[in-house]
Amino acid sequence: MAANDYRGYLRNHTAMENGEARLHSAHGTHRPLIFGTLAVMGLLQLASSVTVLLHLTGYLHEVNLSSAEPVKETHSEHMMADALRDEKKRDKHRKKDQIPKAHLPVKAPIDFSSTDPNIITTVYWDETRGTRNKVQYRDGRLLIQEQGWYYVYAKTCFRYARDHATKKQDVSNVQLIQYIYHEIHTQPKFKPALLSKSGGTLQWGNQSYNMYCAQQGRSAFLNKHDGIFVNVSNSWLLDPEPEGTYFGAFKMSN
Questions:
Q1: Cα gap 229→137, rounded to integer Å
Q2: Is the pTM of this model over 0.70?
Q3: Quick one: residue 157, left, alpha or beta (phi over 0 = left, psi -120 to 50 = alpha)?
Q4: Is 101-253 CATH 2.60.120.40?
Q5: For the chain (length 254 residues), average pLDDT per consecutive 10?
């Protein structure tokens, strides 16, 4: 009986040793696998962290770009608008400088000897005190260099100072008329077309100083080389001041 128990003990002890050996052998076999799994998990976690970090960095960069683009775009729009506005101003000034135009004051001193009210006289103008652009001047005429529709205007002032008059002429019933003529270059010069006239018959009394002004303007189509000029009656009464007597024209359209 005792021998059987002893053999059982030995058998159980041997089995336990063999089991522990197998357990240790199993642990030795799976240890590299465990380390490998942990290493892979660590790498995956590192890669995941790097991916998240790169994603966040890219997102923040995109946000910064998206927030900066409107500012840059708005700034560019303002710069473009300013440039276009400046260019329009320059174009406007250039076009204004290129418009055919002329404005000439009366040429002084005026030496019209005749006091005959029936004589019509062509008025001469002072180039040195006037302005011209693409319009020539010769013999009291503005000569058109570019055809188109023009606004033609003239103002003539007449005055008479009784105390200082060198010619004791009766002006109690004087006719003061202003004419604007269109001289068409394809027609004889002695047959100009009358564009307009203005004036009246003045009954100046015994006042020491008398003055009257005739002013008119109208549009007319003028061809290249056409001329326009002003005639007046009683030219000896013309006011020599440039603010009172002048003549001009400017192009409005083609």
A1: 10
A2: no
A3: beta
A4: yes
A5: 49 51 51 67 67 55 50 57 74 72 91 73 94 95 97 94 64 89 88 93 78 94 97 91 95 94
